[in-house]
Amino acid sequence: MSEHEITISLNAEGIPMRNVLVCGIVLVLLGFSPTVQAGAPAVVKIGVIEPLSGNAAAAGQATKAAIEVAADIINRGHPELARLPLGNTAGMPNLGGAKVQVIFADHQGIRPSGKAKPCG
User: Fold this and answer.
1) Which is more confident, 61 or 26?
2) CA–CA dist 31, 96 (Å, integer)
3) Whole-number mean pLDDT of the chain?
4) Which of 23, 74, 77, 79 is surrounded by the most beta carbons within 10 Å?
5) What are phi and psi of 61, to 5 degrees?
6) Helices H, strands E: what count in the chain?
7) Is 1 helix (H, G, I), strand (E, B) or coil?
8) What CA–CA distance (Å, rounded) separates 47 from 93?
9) φ, ψ for residue 77 (rounded to 5)?
């Protein structure tokens, strides 16, 4: 079974809207691929490198919480959120119901250390 891995690093000074949109688009595209692939993964792993400690920890913790909410909406399905992409179904329907697993790594607000962090 193949695994898909994506690594996203957000700006340590804050969360630029462009990066939030890119993250959202990636999640939507993963869920709305045109066809179910043979041997679709049971889990899609997404690596996120954030400042979870250090001077920018507040921004990193807020981003982590937002990403965890998005993953919960995708993984569990929430009929009350049927108007949101992937809100009504559990998992990603076009990947055979694959769940999202987010793996967080802390770059401590130090840019060079974020380049070398393994996610998972």
Assistant:
1) 61
2) 10
3) 75
4) 74
5) -65, -40
6) 3, 3
7) coil
8) 21
9) 75, 130
